[in-house]
Amino acid sequence: MRDPSHPGLGVRTSLRWLVLFKFGRREHLEELRRDGTLFMNSLAYFSKLEADVVRADRFEGTDRIFQPSSLRHMKIESPDGTTILIQPADMAGPVLLAFGKPPCNIFCMHAITTPVNAPCVDEQNFAFGDSFIVVLNTQTFIDKVCAASADAGISCRYGLVQYFDEVRHSGETGPFRKPAAFAYQKEFRFVLNPGSSRPLRLQVGDLREVTSPVHPLTQIDQLVDFGPECARQAGLTW
Predict the structure, then answer these.
(1) 69 with 159, same domain?
(2) pLDDT per residue over 157-186, tens digit each?
(3) How far apart are CA 236 and CA 238, in angstroms?
(4) Which of 8, 51, 107, 199 is deepest in the core (most CB within 10 A)?
């Protein structure tokens, strides 16, 4: 889709109705386009953040959660044979379990998967930074990330994040599930395994041909149009 007044934002998507954005600081996005360096933090990093309202998530790095209402009790046994039973009524929140899997690293993006009228991005996303870029060719971008991962001997998975009710959900979590409080982020992420507890820098090559120039994030609704009429004119169906 193309905004005639901003020809640099025309989007070609081989994956029908998957348009990817990256939000951040201008200097970081300029470097991303020029050098193709994907900065990927570990899941554990996000679980330990506190002050960052858009990135901090205590559920990151967990594999399953259990709500108190789904448990009869929780039993803790110490090496000396002492047993402690904790009743659901005494639990302050869900029990979070991590199975000790090797660390993985993630690269997070914003996704639009269906036509949407302005505003196309929730203003809460403005906390990610002052700027944005659009991926102009989704398939090529994904292919570049997967190829770079393969060259580095690392498995790469990617997909949309599913959101769960952190008050009611009992069951699987994992790297592609987040609490519903973050649903406004409409996240698409790449997950690299085996990863590192430290940040990884994945080199995917020059991205200037497959991404738009860097633009102010506060102007996103003036610069892009992913509404139903624009989609029809572009020949896209949903």
Answers:
(1) no
(2) 999 999 999 888 888 888 999 999 999 999
(3) 7
(4) 107
Structural domain contains residue 225: yes
Q: Please check whether residue 238 lies inside any domain of the structure.
A: no
**In 3-state terms, what secondary structure has residue 231?**
helix
Residue showing tokens 């659901």: 88
Q: Are residues 13 and 40 in the same domain?
A: yes
d(CA 84, CA 163): 33
| Cα separation, 42 vs 103, whole angstroms | 7
Looking at the fold, whether 136 and 104 belong to one and the same domain comes out as yes
- For 54-87, write each residue's pLDDT tens digit: 888 888 888 888 887 887 777 778 888 788 877 8
Kindly indicate the confidence band of residue 15, based on its pLDDT and cuts at 50, 70 and 90.
Answer: low
Name residue, tokens 């993006």.
Answer: 109
Give the tokens for residue 23: 């939000």
Bridge partners for 63 per DSSP = none
Quick check: is 1 in a domain? no
Of the candidates 157, 144, 151, the residue with the CA atom closest to the CA atom of residue 193: 157
| Domain extent for 83 | 64-97
